[in-house]
Specification:
5-stranded parallel beta sheet, globular, alpha/beta, 10 helices, Rossmann fold, single chain
Amino acid sequence: MAMRFIVLLWLLVVDAACALTTPEEPPWEAHPRTVDYAWSSALEWGEQHESFVKQAGEGNIEVLLLGDSITEGWDAAPDIWNAHFAGYRMANFGISGDATQNLLWRITAGGELNGLSPRAVVLLIGTNNLDMYNDSPEDTARGVGAIVQALRETLPDSRVLLLGIFPRGATRDTELRQRIEQTNRAIARLADGEAVRYLDIGPRLVGANGELHPEIMPDAVHLSPLGYALWAAAMQTELEALIRD
């Protein structure tokens, strides 16, 4: 499994490895992805999206994961998922490089939620807005809010577990880390404690001094197998409560 993670991390390398040109799109407006990245073309993005639409049409999903590369990484960690949530039918709709506007398009005009009524939706999105798009914390939070609103309108019987954006950058004092914390304070207010619950597992991923350990985030962005195990353990109680309610 370690080799699978090495391959995945190589495929999911973001702008730290290459300069990216990103379109100017408000984070709260739905837009499909139209740019090619080093690890994935816009055509491949569309094909992945279409596979999700097809999967949604087949139904039988209890837990839906929505997000970017960090969520997509669960595909390389099935053993960890099954160790915590084996009894639940899960679908992973994470796509590497997605920002809020891309995910918003996928679940609205793109039709990825058509035919679905999962018990719970786990949402983790926004890190690419803050980094690749250089969006402000306020605008990024507005984009996350637009997604939460779309989920509530389209899936009124589903509960949403909204996750705080994971810390990134090796040390606590990085400017990006501060912007993530600002965004998380804003999106935490989207939770009502019932249909939408907020969970910030960031403190589980960093050391006492605020540093990210390579054993958990090898590139200070994406998770290792240990990182996914910490994620699963941190959200297990909250997610199971949403599913049971």
